[in-house]
Amino acid sequence: KIKAMVVRGSGKTEVADPQGFGTLVKRQLDAIMSSPNAKALSQHGSAHLTQMVMGMGDMPVRNWSGEIWQEGADALSGPAIVEKILVKRTGCYACPIRCKGIVHVDEGSIQVAEGPGPEYETLGSLGTLLYHGNLAGVAKANELCNRLGLDTISTGSTIAWAIEAFQSGVLGLSETDGINLDWGSTPAILQTIETIGLRRGSLGELLCAGSGRAAQQLGHGSEAYAMQVKGLDLPMHSPRVFHGLGLAYAVLPNGASHTLGGFTTRGSEDSVEHWVEATLVSMRCAVVNSSAIFCNYTMGRPVLQNLAEILASATGESFTDQKLQAFADRVYLLRYVFNLRAGLRPTANVLPTRVVDQMQERDPRWAADWPRVIPAFYKALGFDPQGYPTETTLRAAGLEDVIATVRQVR
Ligand code: SF4
User: Fold this and answer.
1) What is the whole-number distance in angstroms between the Cα of residue 275 and the centre of ligand 1?
2) 331 C-alpha to center of ligand 1: Å?
3) In terms of domains, do 42 and 160 share one?
4) Residue 195 in domain
5) Ligand 1 centroid vs 95 CA: distance in angstroms?
6) Is 167 helix (H, G, I), strand (E, B) or coil?
7) Looking at the chain, which terminus has fewer C-beta neighbours within 10 angstroms, N or C?
8) Ligand 1 atom nearest 99 alpha carbon
9) Residues 130 and 254 reside in one and the same domain
């Protein structure tokens, strides 16, 4: 029944080459502190993105209806947070950026105790995605999720599914236990979060496993409102702006994640193969980045060579960008085969229909090429055309142990 363990160490962390490591840390620090992104993060946290990415069409509105809602983004922006609810900034150990915001709300019926404020993803998932521009309400929803141990992206996306199902008449008041699920209703959003966290009543039972499961259970066309891949709800960035995310959301073993690469755009002259290669490079960097526990913000756009140098000076072992690339591919393969063993087949590597339909309307070139992208990805990683890693690929990655698993499920 253990849910978490906290360990506090008292020893000192040694590095293999203190002088070389110190030089690289300084180089990294200089790069971090001279980047405009770091300055924006220090001032407004990840919320500095809100207004800009809404203008680009990146931030989803009303369950990915395709609208741009600048007024909502303004209400939930970094400057609005600083002006209305921010108490102070804080950050992770020794980080010079300190992007975290501590907030407090005292607004009549909405009281938020001093604590961590909403990040960009939460401003999207519990804000614009729900057509909810009430900053105090989003801060309260964020606090509730934190206290109930709920991920804000999945919670917001599941509520967006429920609101759309309710508005279209597929879900009735008897299934929502009397909650009027209207877009932008702070009381309905807060009540639903509690209902999910406590698995209370028929609504809590329906929503507690996320939008994908809820849609499967309810049916009646509500599957179209579930914006998820492999059960993980889409984060707050759109494949229509970052083309690499379309591919990454579809093929990542853990589903639609924004922390494992894909923030790449396809140039007007770029081929499908280039689209795939650029996405793969960013996915590999992201795997190494998170395995080495680097913050995504402080690494900016890491290159494997940079990561290899830091790791080599810290550990005394030899790292090259080729070695890290092979490591990243091995991690991907292992996760992929884990999914195969758990019953997920390559047919699960798909984007929600709503995303593909919108791309068809707005970007005919994307839509025309999309059917070739996943096959090109399989080819680049050494999979067969059906989406299974070949035995040669698994052997080359040193994963002989899992060959039998792939044989069994093919
Ligand atoms: S390490 Fe990253 S998440 Fe932590 S305070 Fe610094 S920038 Fe923010």
Assistant:
1) 30
2) 25
3) yes
4) yes
5) 6
6) helix
7) N
8) 8
9) no
Question: Looking at 233, 267, 287, which one is the last position of a domain?
Answer: 233
* Residue where the block lists tokens 């360990």: 7
238 located within any domain:
no
User: Based on the structure, what is the number of domains in the chain?
Assistant: 2
Integer-rounded Cα Rg, in Å, for the chain is 22
Whether residue 247 sits in one domain with residue 229: no
* Ligand 1 pocket mutation, candidates 25, 37, 41, 46, criterion most atoms within 8 A of CB: 41
Closest ligand 1 atom to Cα of 295: 2
Residue 170 belongs to a domain with what CATH number? 1.10.569.10
Residue identifier of the C-alpha nearest atom 4 of ligand 1: 92
User: Are the CB atoms for 199 and 206 separated by under 8 Å?
Assistant: no
Question: Up-side HSE of residue 265: CA atoms within 13 Å toward CB?
Answer: 8
pLDDT in tens, the chain (410 residues): 888 899 998 998 899 999 999 999 898 888 888 888 899 999 999 999 999 999 999 999 999 998 999 999 999 999 999 999 999 999 998 888 999 999 999 999 999 999 999 999 999 999 999 999 999 999 999 999 999 999 999 999 999 999 999 999 999 999 999 999 999 999 999 999 999 999 999 999 999 999 999 999 999 999 999 999 999 999 999 998 999 999 999 999 999 999 999 999 999 899 999 999 999 999 998 999 889 888 888 765 567 788 889 999 999 999 988 999 999 999 999 999 999 999 999 999 999 999 999 988 888 899 999 999 999 999 999 999 999 999 999 999 999 999 999 999 98
Nearest CA to ligand 1 atom 2: 295
Residue 190 DSSP class? H
**Has residue 13 been placed in a domain?**
no
Q: Does residue 398 share a domain with residue 312?
A: yes
**287 and 205, same structural domain?**
no
Residues with CB under 6 A from ligand 1: 41, 91-92, 95, 97-100, 295, 297-298
Q: How far apart are CA 61 and CA 337, in angstroms?
A: 35
Q: Do 382 and 404 belong to one domain?
A: yes
Distance (Å) from CA 378 to ligand 1 centroid: 34
Q: Per-residue DSSP letters for 212-270?
A: HHHHHHH-TTGGGG--EETTEEP-S--TTT-HHHHHHHHH-TT-S-SSSS------TT-
Q: How far away, in angstroms, is 114 Cα from ligand 1 center?
A: 19
Distance 43 CA to ligand 1 centre (A): 13
Q: Are residues 161 and 268 in the same domain?
A: no
Same domain, 204 and 272: no
Query: What domain range includes position 305?
Result: 243-409
